[in-house]
Structures
1.
Amino acid sequence: MTAYTATVTVRLKHGVLDPEAETTQKALERLGFELGDLRSADRFEIDLDAADSDEAAERAGEMADRLLANPTIHDYDVTVEAAE
């Protein structure tokens, strides 16, 4: 087994209201920043042991499917790196 760090980034799907991002975008615009759009996201870093990076990604994806993301309103991405 090898140690990996899986990063799961969970964000709301396009079209789902994101009040946190809307508030932040308005505040940034009041500060003089010009933005096209802003979306909020949650990022989870998971340290785990797995036989290879594919297995680590599969396990992290299962965690996202079962708990970290609501498939009705969220999309997520999984990236895996060997732990240092």
2.
Amino acid sequence: MLETLKKEPQHPLLSSDENHYSLLIVDEAETEIGSFEWKDNYNIKNVKTVLKLDSLEEADQSYPFLQLDRTPIFIVFDMTNIVLKTGSEQELVQFLQEYHPNE
């Protein structure tokens, strides 16, 4: 079996896998969104990495270019761009159930 070289993303928030998304969650409330149980409950299999930040201030300091102004906020990345930015868990779940990278 040939081993392929992994292409490193240009930014750590971007997905490093062409078949999976990366998810950034900024949520000051204690929720299970993004957890293994959450992904299983909604049958979400196309998210490989999840970064969860507990405060808008922390997110703004780490990633000011995202220009976040509220929580909760859910941002889905493919290998090159933001593909969804929403404050709605329902919209996030619907997107992840309907869309897959490389489709």
3.
Amino acid sequence: MSWMKKRDEMHGQLRKLNKAIPEVTKAFAGVSAVVKTDGVLDVKTKELIAVAIAVADSCEPCMNFHIEVLIRAGGSREELGEALGMAVQMGGGPALMYAAKAMDAYDELHAALSPKAAE
């Protein structure tokens, strides 16, 4: 399955979950909104951290979600590569395998989501 299809599937699953437990998902969205603002760390840096954690924890939907946000925040493939290196160092072999998936997801999603792709 392509990363774009996985992305669309994940968004559909989250919409269903939002309907099932709206109070919980609304509270989680509130936490997300607070941390996804520029502060001492900018949003791009925070998303690089989120992708690295998703890779180290082997959470493919998390990885896919945060790569999308990273792209929208202006994150580059090179920046992602450095963050993935840290994830591998922290997570060992399983993180190495997910780092490869994360780079593949970035390439596909960037091609589909970048402004040049829309033209």
4.
Amino acid sequence: MAPVRMIYLALAIWGAVHPMYYFITWFQANTWDIMAMVDAWHVNAATSGLVWDLTIAALALTVWITSEVAVRRNWSALIAIPATFCIGVSCGLPLYLFLRSRPVQ
């Protein structure tokens, strides 16, 4: 595997594990209610801005993935979309770059 591909894969794994640690820590300290976490994301203008920033980035990534998959026919790359919305952009983007950068056969 090319070294850059391995960096993308490492970043995807890190982007899945590291943020999840904080989410699970929060859930254990508070409740396992997802709406309570959403409320916590909007506790002030700074966190609301960050939530919207990541939401817009996730939507832009989704548009990019779907438009490229339609051209490249790299259907397995679609897995980056649920990774983006279920885990986060920090996982979905490097995962997509990893899947996109595989050698052409």
